[in-house]
Amino acid sequence: MSQSEKVNKGSGEGKTQDMAIFSPPVVRSGAGALNRALFTKTVNLAAAAVNDNQPDTWGTALKEGVEKKELDVIPYELKLDYDYWSYHDIITSILPEELHDDIPSGFNTAGHVAHMNLRERYIPYKKVIAELILDKTQNIRTVINKVDNVGAESEFRTFQYEVLAGPDDMQVQVTENNCVFEFDYAKVYWNSKLEAEHRRLINMFEPGEVVCDVMAGIGPFAVPAGKKGVFVWANDMNPESNKYMQVAINRNKVSQYVRPFCQDGRTFIHHAADSVLEAHKASEHVLIAPKPPSRAKKAPKPEPKRVDIPPTISHFVMNLPATAIEFLGCYRGVYAGHEDLFEGGKLMPMVHVHCFSFKADDETPRNDICERITKYLGFKVKPGNPDVEGEVAVHDVRDVAPAKRMFCASFRIPREAAFAKRD
């Protein structure tokens, strides 16, 4: 499983005053370490003792049973312990009340690793929070906390972390979009919150098209696309990402569709366009085995279907939101001298560039993104229909901070840019 999770808040929310008797003991001194033994409680209740051989006296017959003294009400001690209460129940009993307004409960997961990003005021309680998550969340064996911003340690979007609970084991396995990925979470970039965005773009790709994934990571776009019969030139500058992308390609059996590269994204854009055209000229293709006929039919065995690599790229994906817009100038001259490839109304390649902008309810973020695209692409663009040259569709992907959002801007490369002379 690879997804963003929240610890089950269980019975800790919405308790009535009567139900408060089932709350855990208040342990405000629990900042240092989690003492599970402190979380025991005996609740004095009244219980109905029913004759085992008279079950018909239960339910609506309760009052009648008491009147006939066939049923007695007796004292009963209900013993509750640590296993009974939810994460939210226990952490609420530990944290001081002034910290109850925003209790940490959400985290990213990558396989068995829970990745937290604790705010400063909860750091004194980080070990307790981590132990609780470990105890109360299935399939989690390691809890880490990010100690710097993604990319601060390296250009490969990795980050420094500290292990709060469990072993320092970052070798994980995740399943996303029907593909299995194995990787070292400490050495490559992976964000479980992007699964829906990966799926959204993959759904745009048609079998037999070519996609150029400029910043491919370990292949969350490339590998599932290959599985649906899309040719992918997949690149990442991080050698570790390239290594684990090759593992994913082999494991998911998409090697005939997905080609891994390890280059700078700026040079890869032109390289990919040239390489795809060369593959087309060399008649490179895949053969798709036909479905075997049913035993009842005696028809001749059908021939495999041949799918040739087309001469041009249909989509460029640039999932490096911090800086990808700055790469857009590299599309100048991407098809210099090959105007003939786009004759007869053939559409220019679509670019999907991820980026950050500020949160707003109006068109301000979209206008901001288009201004930056204009600056680096060198051609004026505006919000609109991505199939119209000079217009950009801006998709709102997700929140990344209180005043910051991630977007994906999609547009077709202007012909004047694509056919310009290469530098």
Could you report the average pLDDT, rounded to the nearest whole number?
Answer: 89
Portion of residues within helices: 10-25%
* Terminal-residue CA separation: 46 Å
CATH topology group of the largest domain: Rossmann fold
Helix and strand element order: EEHEHEEHEEEEHEHEHEHEEEEHEEEH
Main beta sheet strand tally, sense and closure: 8 strands, mixed
Low-confidence stretches: 11-15
Please work out how many helical segments DSSP would assign. Answer: 9
Dominant shape? elongated
The CATH architecture of the largest domain: 3-Layer(aba) Sandwich
Number of domains: 2
**CATH class of the largest domain, please?**
Alpha Beta
Q: Percent of residues in beta strands?
A: 25-35%
Strand elements, count:
19
Give the C-alpha Rg: 29 Å
- Read across the widest sheet, the strand sequence of neighbours is 12-11-10-15-16-19-18-17
CATH superfamily of the largest domain: Vaccinia Virus protein VP39
Which structural category fits the helices and strands?
A: alpha/beta
